Amino acid sequence: MHPHFKTPDELLKLGAKRRLDSNRLPVRGKKRMEATGSQREKKLIEKKQDQIEDILTEERLAKLSHLSRGEWNDQTLVAEIHYKKGSHWNYFGFPKGEIEILQPEEAVYLIEIGALELYYKGLPLSLQEAYSIILSKTFPIYKYQVYCHLLRLGFIVKRHLPARFKVNKETKSKLQPDHDVTEDYPIPLVTPMDAETTDKILNKLQVVKSTKMEEVTTKSGSKMEDTIDFDVYLPNANFKKVNFGLPNIAVKVSRYDDPFPDSSCIAKLINLCEAVPLKWALNENGDITFYSFDDMEIPVVS
């Protein structure tokens, strides 16, 4: 017999062994969910803490001539930039008279990458002080993490402004074709070519009517904020701060332990986005995942 083929007895033994193995639960080691208090575990934790401390206390050197400088205004909660340096000003801030204004998240990010020296009450702010003084009062840290994540991916990120989403809604309306009554031979409602999916068959038979997410009646009382957080643009060398135009993506940020949004909240956000795709950023202690709600039709039985 060929060496790659098994005899009938060998096949029976192999089948019996597989059936026996399938009835057994896999046995593995215990998950390390709780502290054991061992010396090895203690040393490992201390080593990780020392590594984090070394990273946080690492000094960054930058020439003053390469740094932009500004003042944090505790009344208006914005950073007023009096001296600009670098090409990132093509994307950050907005002009107000002779000075440039930065939102809190923009100011902290530029401090973090070593491009801005920000003063508060006459003294320069360290990164730790910027987190404590600026972000703690104005911008949630979980949203700032998503903001930085998108910037590091190369996107241009701005706070959401509803005015950017004003589009001509008339262009979205679709004219329904007229149905002419003819004396032709009867045509079947469903043909074999239409029987690709259940959805197509139901649409042909008109057994159910479809409801789009954007047509769902919005209800108040949702515990989640039904507002968009960021307008995201693809990298563009010709980006203009005066007229941003329609963003490529709209982003809503949520924490992992936030309540799941109901259909009315999702429908309201989709309506706010108009023609812009909506992405849902879920932040779980710095681990960021993006979800999207595709344009779909939900069948509702008549």
Task: Give a verbal description of the structure.
With 302 residues, the protein is an alpha+beta fold. It folds into 2 domains: 76 residues, 3-Layer(aba) Sandwich (MutS, DNA mismatch repair protein, domain I); 141 residues, Trna Endonuclease, Chain: A, domain 1. The protein contains 7 helices and 13 strands. The strands form 3 sheets. A 6-stranded mixed sheet has the order 3-4-2-1-5-6, covered by helices on one side. The chain has a 5-stranded mixed sheet with strand order 7-9-10-11-12. α3 runs antiparallel to α4. About 4% of the residues have low confidence.
Chart the SSEs and their pairings.
Blueprint: H1 8-22, H2 39-56, E1 68-73, E2 78-83, E3 94-96, E4 99-102, H3 104-112, E5 116-120, E6 123-124, H4 127-138, H5 141-152, E7 156-159, H6 198-205, E8 208-212, E9 230-233, E10 249-255, H7 263-273, E11 278-284, E12 287-292, E13 297-301
Helix pairs in contact: 3-4
Succession of helices and strands: HHEEEEHEEHHEHEEEHEEE
* CATH fold descriptor of the largest domain: Trna Endonuclease, Chain: A, domain 1
In what order do the strands lie side by side in the largest sheet? 3-4-2-1-5-6
**How much helical structure, as a percent, in the residues?**
25-40%
Number of domains: 2
- What is the CATH class designation of the largest domain? Alpha Beta
The Rg value, from CA coordinates, equals 29 Å
What's the β-strand tally?
Answer: 13
Main sheet record: 6 strands, mixed
- How many angstroms separate the termini? 65 Å
CATH architecture of the largest domain: 3-Layer(aba) Sandwich
Beta-sheet strand percentage?
15-25%
Which stretches are poorly predicted, pLDDT < 50 over at least 5 residues?
167-177
How many helical elements?
A: 7
**Oligomerization state of this entry?**
single chain
| Arithmetic mean pLDDT | 78
Shape: flat
Structural class assignment: alpha+beta
